[in-house]
Amino acid sequence: MADLILIPVLALLFVGAKRYDNGFNKDYLSKDNTLALKGACALSIVLLHIGGVTQAKLLPEITAFAVSVFFFLSGYGMITALKNKGDSYLNKFIQRHTIKLAIPYFVAALIYVIYFRYAQGNLGFKYYDEYKVSFKGIVSAFFEHGYTIVVNSWFVIVLFVFYLFFYISFKKCKNIEDGIGFFSLLVIAFTVLMFYLAQFKGWYTAWYMQNFSIIVGTLYGYKKELIDKVIKSHKGIVVSVLGVILFSLLAAFGVLKYNTDIGGHINTAEYCVLTCIIPICVAVAYSSIQIGCKKIWGGIGKISFELYLIHGLFYYMFQMGRLKIENKLVFCICVIAASLVASFILNIINKYLVKLLQKLFRC
After folding, report:
1. Among 1, 76, 119, 262, which residue carries the largest CB count within 10 Å?
2. What are phi and psi of 19, to 5 degrees?
3. pLDDT tens digits, one per residue of 3-25
4. What is the DSSP pairing of strand 18-19 with strand 289-290?
5. How far is residue 353 from each of residues 64, 99, 304, 347, measured CA to CA in Å?
6. Could you tell me where the DSSP H helices lie in the chain?
């Protein structure tokens, strides 16, 4: 039943979608154009988590790699800005990005604390039952299992770590090639650490499975001119090669998962490999096709960070107590609607606070 929510979502993506006049848009990954893509990815992440809660069949499969596209766009955006602005881009880099991440995160965290404290008395009902809402409980949940007070916010913490890695790499290295290499090594080392924590210390697997896409985004941004030239001149070949690679990988991983006794390990390998391929496929498709209802997706893109942070609150809220919703489709609609409204309000608050702190720190 929950899978039915895909019908209006896919309709918004495809109704009104059109191919660019010359078959290629050189600004397909510009800040304005990627806003709609971020909106689609943010809603996909909401649907992914709703699918897990409602035990839907299609939602988790279709939306599984949305975070990898976010990481890809982050890597692409940072390296492109560095190429265009030079070393001046790194001036107050940490202050700028810390403020943009930290303010929305702590505002959302405050809301979660208030809800968990007064509505439940513990940190959630699925993962956090053993932890009380206190500083000690929040810290213990994080260091023992990688659980965060803002539900599913591992992405924000990992992204902040990658910002630090990017800054360190390009401050240390004299040229972009060396910087990308050092940055990639740091990301790989961090991913190995997260894999160790997941396998042996009880952390959950999300912390490492989609990290490599930020390296792919960085490489894509560095060589975008060459990549665009190849796409524009040999679009059919590029699409065919990517299609064959993607289908072959999905088929191979599918066979291994469902016909061997090592399905769980294969699932990990599948994520780590496909998280590098799928963002490239999305970028190539996006270079030729404008998604439907671009203004709507662009509007969601403007509040995508808040949407990512706050939607977990509502799928907890609508599963229990007086607000519990039994019908899975109605549950999906209510979670999405409440999350969008709350995200719009939080975005207004966060913009004000971010501008205030940026002015204070002059960054």
Report:
1. 76
2. -85, 140
3. 677 777 777 887 878 888 788 88
4. antiparallel
5. 32, 9, 17, 10
6. 6-14, 31-54, 59-63, 66-85, 93-115, 135-145, 154-172, 176-200, 206-209, 213-222, 224-233, 235-259, 263-286, 294-302, 304-317, 328-361
> Which residues, at least 6 apart from 29, have a Cβ–Cβ distance to it below 8 Å?
73, 76, 80, 221, 224, 283, 286
Q: What is the pLDDT of residues 308-362, one digit of tens each?
A: 999 999 988 888 767 888 888 889 899 999 999 999 999 999 999 999 999 888 8
Neighbours of 295 (CB within 10 A): 10
Q: Which two tokens stand for residue 100?
A: 């943009």
Under a CB-based contact definition with an 8 Å cutoff, are residues 37 and 177 in contact?
no
Q: Print burial letters for 113-145: b (CB count within 10 Å at least 16), e (below 16).
A: bebbeeebeebbeeebeebbbeeebbebbbeeb
CB-based contact 147:312 (threshold 8 Å): no
User: What span, in angstroms and rounded, lies between the C-alpha atoms of 152 and 155?
Assistant: 7
The contacts of residue 220 (CB under 8 Å, 6+ apart) are 72, 75, 76, 227, 280, 283
Amino acid at 359: K
Q: Which two three-digit tokens encode residue 26?
A: 């050189």
The CA dihedral of 41, 42, 47, 50, to the nearest 10 degrees, is: 150
Contacts of 215 (CB under 8 A, 6+ apart): 75, 183, 184, 187, 188, 276
User: Residues with Cβ < 8 Å from 290, sequence gap 6 or more?
Assistant: 17, 18, 19, 20, 25
